[in-house]
Specification:
Elements: H1 7-14, H2 24-44, E1 54-58, E2 64-66, H3 67-83, E3 86-91, E4 98-99, E5 110-118, E6 129-137, E7 157-165, E8 169-174, E9 179-185, E10 190-195, E11 206-208, H4 219-229, E12 240-241, H5 247-257, E13 260-263, E14 274-275, H6 276-289, E15 293-295, E16 312-313, E17 315-318, H7 320-333
Parallel strand pairs: 3-5, 11-12, 11-13
Antiparallel strand pairs: 1-2, 3-4, 5-6, 6-7, 7-8, 8-9, 9-10, 13-17, 14-16, 15-17
Helix pairs in contact: 1-2, 2-3, 4-7
Length: 346
């Protein structure tokens, strides 16, 4: 049998890739791993505990906060704060950044942005959910973290990843040196390297989009969906439609098997719905490192300017050739400056 390599061992081995770091980044990734184990434990027993359902609050996005959202948010904030390797945290669940106030964090080099529980609307129906995280070097010199520390392009990320809580718990991350996946072995309580050097297929036969919103899509997206549904032996069309409705789960599947995931602008959400900082940028970093592509339909996601903490954007992400084709439909049929609506049957 081949030797099992744990997440901790792997991080230590790769520490030499970051000459500017003295172990802080490794410890930060370790803290995220610890918090994710705690959240996974609660997800697995959620049906047996009084932890499902709404917490009776509305978050900054105007969405109902689920009890497990609150728990996950608290666990990651606690782990990152106690570790002392970051000076501030930006979370989907909090309107403002969380300043880490302890002795160890005064000279911390990093800030962390996160969606503590992506896909939480699926909690009550036992569908996979996940955590998305992104790590940046702070731009302020010292002292408490600031909003400006987070106003960086995705190209400035030093690490990003996600944890998917499903039939197994898996942590996938990149530090710009490829993508590696670790599956949690519950018998020893450790994430073990299970998917080294992950690469997504350049093209595939799966598209993921909420077609229930078809009437609200821009013309370029409608035309691309029709293209996916046409018969053509040379391109293996029609493609299969696979949409879970939990972003991490959809993108994780497409990362492994290939495919495209689209969350476009709509007449109801003209700026898009997904958040650039803690959803789109980290997922784009991972997919690009795996050989795929991520854009907003026109521009590379990781080159978009950050203007506000909870900034939204459309997202086209997945296999390189499929995203290229979808972008060509956007360029041909839709305007970057204006949402073009057409007849629903177009």
């Amino acid at each position: 049998m081949s030797k099992v390599k744990t997440l901790g061992q792997f991080i230590i081995e790769k520490q030499s890739d970051f000459p500017f770091s003295k172990g802080e980044l490794s410890r930060l990734l370790r803290d995220i791993g610890i918090a994710s184990k705690i959240v996974n434990r609660e997800v697995n027993k959620a049906g047996l505990a009084d932890i499902l359902g709404d917490a009776g609050e509305i978050n900054i996005q105007g969405e109902n906060v689920k009890k497990l959202d609150v728990f996950a948010n608290e666990q990651f904030i606690a782990a990152l704060s106690l570790g002392g390797e970051c000076c501030a945290i930006a979370s989907e669940e909090n309107e403002d950044i969380i300043i880490v106030n302890n002795e160890m964090s005064k000279n911390a080099k990093y800030v962390v942005a996160m969606d503590p529980l992506d896909g939480s609307s699926n909690i009550d129906v036992n569908v996979s959910v996940g955590t998305i995280f992104s790590i940046y070097r702070r731009t302020s010199l010292s002292g408490p973290g600031t909003n400006e520390d987070f106003y960086q392009r995705g190209t400035e990320q030093v690490a990003a990843g996600y944890v998917i809580y499903g039939s197994s718990c898996m942590l996938v991350y990149t530090t710009g040196k490829g993508v590696n996946g670790f599956t949690l072995d519950p018998s020893i309580g450790e994430f073990c390297l299970s998917h080294p050097n992950m690469q997504t297929p350049k093209s595939a036969v799966t598209y993921s989009i909420n077609e229930g919103n078809y009437v609200h899509f821009p013309l370029g997206v409608k035309k691309y969906i029709k293209y996916c549904q046409e018969e053509d032996d040379d391109t293996s069309r029609p493609y299969s439609s696979r949409y879970i409705g939990s972003g991490v789960a959809d993108i994780h599947r497409n990362l492994i098997k290939g495919g495209i995931y689209i969350y476009p602008i709509t007449s109801k959400s003209p700026k898009g719905k997904l958040r650039l900082l803690y959803e789109c940028n980290p997922l784009a970093f991972i997919i690009e490192q795996a050989g795929g592509k991520a854009c907003d339909g026109f521009n590379r996601i990781m080159e978009l300017d950050m203007k506000e903490l909870h900034q939204r954007t459309p997202l086209f992400i997945g296999s390189y050739d499929m995203v290229e084709t979808a972008s060509s439909f956007m360029a041909k049929y839709s305007s970057q400056d204006e949402l073009i609506m057409t007849n629903p049957i177009a």
